[in-house]
Amino acid sequence: IIELTIPNEQFEKDLLKNLASTECLVLDYAVLLNLAKMNLLGHLARLKKKFYIAESLFNKAQNELLMFEQEDLRRVWNFLRSSKEIEIAEESKTEFENDSILEIFGKWGVDSINLAKQKNAIFVTDDLRFMQLLSIEAIKVCNSPIILKFMLEKKWIDEKIYSTSIGDLAERFYTFLCF
What we know:
alpha/beta, about 55% helix
């Protein structure tokens, strides 16, 4: 089994606690693409949580698929359109005081942050720096490696799928994976 390295043990415990304690999650684009690459989007329903994405993220995925046909993106698109667990939230009218946030994360990122605040949801992102920003904004976070670990513990996936999925993340140059 390929293991992953989380920055520290308390960080991992906090993320697992966040996942276990919430009824709703806001998913970011990278997590959707990562889970699509692992072919695990359909397993999200087993978490029995409500999932939200910002309408601007839905539109971004749609526009990118129109420009470039790609298998993982097609899986994300099909999942977002057909999943009963995903709610596409209307675009937010709330703005950040600092315009650089919009420049860095784009409209979908800002809308997703606002959505997590409005729904008191856990924000699922695989970007460690984004997690740090969300913590400053008092938004609790989780990531796809924690979801994978949770799925493994529940025996929804086996060790082979878990290891292959960690390998998929490693292909995307995640620094928290040890080899």
